[in-house]
Design goal:
Helices cover 8% and strands 55% of the residues. It has 305 residues and is mainly β. The chain folds into two domains: 138 residues; 114 residues, no CATH class. Strands 1, 2, 3, 4, 5, 6, 7, 8, 9, 10 and 11 form an eleven-stranded mixed β-sheet that branches. Strands 12, 13, 14, 15, 16, 17, 18, 19, 20 and 21 form a ten-stranded antiparallel β-sheet that branches. A hairpin with a 2-residue loop joins strand 1 and strand 2. The longest helix is centred in the first third of the chain and has 23 residues. The chain is globular, with a radius of gyration of 28 Å.
Length: 305
C-alpha cells in the first residue's frame, strides 16, 4: 500500500509539473483549426426602386427543377424556378422557368409567364456538399389588370392590359441549398436578351463571326433592331470595359443608324470550344465624343457551339 501511495504521489507530481510547464511555454508552429468560418447568407434586390432584403432564403432542387426563394418579414416574396441544376445562366420565361413576385395575400401576383415578362438568373455557386448556392438575377413580372367584377381591363384595341414590377440588381449569397441529387443539366438554349432604354429586346436570329475577334449579333426581325458585341477570341472569364474603338466594344442598330458603346461592361462567364456565355451593359452614342443616346442594360448572351 505504501509503495502504491508513493507511486501515485510521484505520478501526480509529474503530471502537475508537465501541466505547469505547458502553461508557461509559448505555442510554436502552424496549427490548423477545425472550427469552420461563419457563413453569412443574404438575399437582396431592388423592387421598383425599393430595396428588398430577404429575412429568409433557400434553394431547393427536386427532379432537376431548382427553386430559389427570398421572403421579407412583411410577407413580400420572390420565387424563381427553372429547369436545370448547377452553375450557369437560366431563362425565367416560357418552358424554361418562371419568376414571381407578390405580397403575403397574393404571393404569385406578378409572373414572368404573363405577357411582357422577362428574366434571367445566373447561378455562380451550386455546392451540394456544402449546401450553399449563390448568384444574381433580374426580371420583369406582370399581372393582368382587372375591373371591379374581376374581368380583364382592355385597351383601345381590345387587348388585355397589364401592370408590371421590375426586380433589378438581385443577389443571393451562400443561401441554404437542398438537393435530391438530380443531375439534369441546364437546357442548351441559344439566346441574346437585353433591355434597351427600358424596353425588352428579344432576338429572333443569332450570328457569330470569328476572326481574331469574336463578334456576336442578335437581330429582332420584327423591328429590324440588332445588338452586336465584339471581344478577342482569347478572352478568358472576367470583367472588361466596353469602349468606342477598342477590342471590347458593343453596338445598337435602331433600324436607321448604329450607336456604339461609349462606356460599358462585359462579363465573360465562359468562352470555350463548347459554349460562349456573357452578360453586358453599355451606354451608346452616335459619335465617340457625342452624347449618350441609348442605354442597354440586363444583357445576357448564351450560345452553344
Amino acid at each position: 500500500m505504501k509503495l502504491n501511495s508513493l507511486f501515485a504521489l510521484a505520478f501526480l507530481s509529474f503530471f502537475t509539473l508537465m501541466h505547469l510547464s505547458c502553461d508557461n511555454e509559448p505555442l510554436e508552429g502552424d496549427f490548423v483549426s477545425d472550427i469552420p468560418e461563419e457563413v453569412i447568407a443574404s438575399f437582396t434586390a431592388v423592387v421598383e426602386g425599393v430595396t428588398f432584403v430577404g429575412d429568409t432564403a433557400q434553394a431547393v432542387t427536386i427532379s432537376g427543377v431548382t427553386s430559389i426563394t427570398g421572403i421579407k418579414g412583411n410577407g413580400d416574396k420572390i420565387v424563381m424556378t427553372f429547369q436545370g441544376i448547377g452553375v450557369g445562366a437560366f431563362n425565367l420565361t416560357g418552358n424554361s422557368g418562371e419568376a414571381t413576385f407578390g405580397i403575403s395575400s397574393a404571393p404569385t401576383a406578378f409572373s414572368t409567364q404573363n405577357e411582357g415578362g422577362i428574366g434571367e438568373i445566373i447561378v455562380t455557386q451550386y455546392d451540394v456538399e456544402l449546401g450553399l448556392a449563390s448568384g444574381t438575377f433580374a426580371f420583369i413580372a406582370t399581372r393582368a389588370l382587372l375591373d371591379a367584377n374581376g374581368q380583364p381591363i382592355l385597351d383601345g384595341n381590345g387587348n388585355p392590359t397589364f401592370d408590371s414590377v421590375t426586380v433589378a440588381n438581385g443577389v443571393f449569397n451562400n443561401i441554404p441549398l437542398v438537393s435530391d441529387g438530380s443531375t439534369t443539366m441546364p437546357p442548351q438554349e441559344d439566346f441574346m436578351r437585353a433591355r434597351i432604354d427600358t424596353l425588352v429586346f428579344e432576338t429572333t436570329n443569332l450570328t457569330i463571326v470569328t476572326s481574331g475577334l469574336i463578334t456576336v449579333q442578335g437581330v429582332n426581325a420584327l423591328t429590324n433592331e440588332s445588338l452586336t458585341i465584339a471581344f478577342p477570341e482569347t478572352t478568358v472569364p472576367g470583367t472588361y470595359d466596353l469602349t468606342f474603338n477598342g477590342d471590347f466594344s458593343a453596338g445598337y442598330f435602331n433600324n436607321e443608324v448604329t450607336f456604339t458603346s461609349k462606356t460599358g461592361v462585359l462579363t465573360i462567364i465562359e468562352n470555350s470550344a463548347n459554349l460562349i456565355r456573357f452578360t453586358f451593359s453599355f451606354e451608346a452614342s452616335l459619335l465617340e465624343d457625342g452624347d449618350i443616346e441609348h442605354v442597354v442594360t440586363e444583357g445576357l448572351f448564351q450560345y452553344f457551339l
